[in-house]
Every structure is written in C-alpha cells, then in structure tokens.
Amino acid sequence: MSKRNRARRMSRQESAEASPGAIVAANDNRGAVHAFTFGDPEPVLSRATMLDMLECYHNQRWYEPPISLHGLARAFRASPHHSSAIILKRNMLAASLAPTQWLSRAAFKSMVQDYLVMGNAYAQEVRNRLGGLLRLDHALAKYTRRGVEPGRFWWVPGGGEAETEFTPRTVHQLQAPDVNQEIYGLPEYLSALQSALLNENATLFRRRYYENGSHAGYIMYATGEFADGDIDSMRDALKRSKGPGNFRNLFVHSPGGKEGGIKILPIAEVGAKDEFLGIKNTTRDDVLAAHRVPPQLLGIVPANAGGFGDVTKATDAFFELEIEPLQSVFLELNEALGVEAVRFRERVKAAA
C-alpha cells in the first residue's frame, strides 16, 4: 500500500471539526453504496449513574438528601398502580396496629406513608414537664433533615420560611437502607420509577391525542375518476371535520370510478393503539414487581380465563412476605424509646 492511500490518525483540530456531525464514511468507492454513522457521542456514564457516586453534602448544619424528596412526592401519583400499591401497604399496616397511649393510628399511618414513599420516617418525642414520654408525633419526611451532629435534626420547610432545629435527641429516624450512603434511606421502588413515569406519559399523550382534534389519523388516497370540483368538495369536507366535533362521516359518490379508487391508509391510529397498550401493560408489570404486590389485590382484571388465583391465599402470602417485615421496621422505635409504643395485633390467616 502506498503512503498516499495509507490511513492516518486525525489531529485534535480535525476531530473537533468532525464531532458535531459525527459522520464517518465507510468507503471511498464512487458509485457504490456508502454507509454512514451519525448522532452525537454518548457518554459512558450518564447523569443518572453519576448520582450514585455523590455523597450527601451538608451546609455545616444538616445533610441534603441524595435524591429530590419533592420529586418523589410528585411521582407518588404518577401511576395508579404505583400509588395504589403504596396505599395498600399503608392501610394493611395501619389496620394491624394496636394503638397505645404513646402512638395513635393517625400518626402511625402518616409515618408508614412517608417510609414507603420517601424511604424515611421520623417520629418526634413529646414529653411532659416531668420528662416522661407523653406521645409520638409524626414529622414530615419531606421537610426533615438529618443534622451533621449525631442526634440533631432540622425542619426545613422551604418556600422562604425559616428553618428551625428540633430539640436534640427527640427525633427518631427510620430509614430504608441504601448501598451508597447511610445518612438517608431510599425507597425500594426506585428501579421502577421510570416505568411509572412512562405509564403517566403514555396516558397524557393519549389524552392530548384525542383532545387536540387535529392529528393526522389517516391518508386518503384517491386514484379514481372524479368530476370537476369533486376533489375540492372532498378537501373542504375533510377540513371542516377537524377540530371540535371531528370524526364525522363523509359520503363520496363517484359514478365512473373503479373499485379501490379511494383508499384510507391509517398512519397513526393502529400503531399508536398497539404501542399504548403495550406500554401500559409493561410498565404496570414493572411497578407491581417493584412493590411485590399481587395484581388481584389491586383490582386488576385478569386477561386470561383462569384469573390470578385465590385472593385469600395471595393476601396471606403478601402479609407474610411484605407486611410483617415492615412491621419489624417500626418495632425498632420500641428499642430507641425504651417503651412499647408500637404494638401489632396477631393476625388470623384469611385462608383459615
């Protein structure tokens, strides 16, 4: 091979000039097929994975959470299956509680919901004048921050309001463990959060699809013989069918036309319908797998004739595998307080 045809390495300037288009010719043969690669360079580490490398930074007073708690609160209602699974666990845990003089069912219910949504729950001690424990109040996890010094917590409401510090060693934190840091807990459903958001996006897109009234639903392909002015009349009728009151019927009469002279070619309806159902079903399965909730407990209609099986057996298995481990998390408060503030009733299996 001669030196003229030998490939050489591009300089930095040439690489910078070629990077915006990222177009690389596969060969130099004239008259032959050319293949190109195009698109912007993709980073090996995306922004999502970079979050795993960050620690909880602090401002000398409290630590900031590794993930936006405001975003988790908004995502709570993104998907009906996501919120319904959390509400089911919350209601079953609250129903199994035996209220004590220190913990009410309402406060416990709020703490459970914070733990399932945010991965953190906070119980604040309220003591009497003699220093004895009077009751446990619920502190919203969305606005509670863990202090830099052990045993100290801060109330950070945002919105221009001043932050305040809780009385030291009166707030107890329950957290779902995280593999990257030990300051804050993270919810277990994070792996399915994108599926829940995609489920919401599919529903919103479908609503806009029917509300805008001006989407291209089909192509009207006319090849027959028409009298003068017929094409203009059909064009005007199609224009009037758009917007409010669309999907009108259209009558076309062509005496000299042939069979197949007018064809309707759908370009969006069939494909969008199949894609919509596939997205909804797939994302639903992802969310249910992350929450480990049997579908019959959420009122999902089975697609097959056999159904999902006995609902009582599914309830017993779900209570044993999910609710009882969650009960053990809140029983940790008893060890921190020195009193039996959290107590659960013994459950009788539904199948029995």
TrEMBL record:
<feature type="region of interest" description="Disordered">
    <location>
        <begin position="1"/>
        <end position="22"/>
    </location>
</feature>
<protein>
    <submittedName>
        <fullName>Phage portal protein</fullName>
    </submittedName>
</protein>
<feature type="compositionally biased region" description="Basic residues">
    <location>
        <begin position="1"/>
        <end position="10"/>
    </location>
</feature>
<dbReference type="InterPro" id="IPR030935">
    <property type="entry name" value="PBSX_Proteobac"/>
</dbReference>
<dbReference type="Pfam" id="PF04860">
    <property type="entry name" value="Phage_portal"/>
</dbReference>
<comment type="similarity">
    <text>Belongs to the phage portal family. PBSX subfamily.</text>
</comment>
<dbReference type="InterPro" id="IPR006944">
    <property type="entry name" value="Phage/GTA_portal"/>
</dbReference>
<dbReference type="InterPro" id="IPR006430">
    <property type="entry name" value="Phage_portal_PBSX"/>
</dbReference>
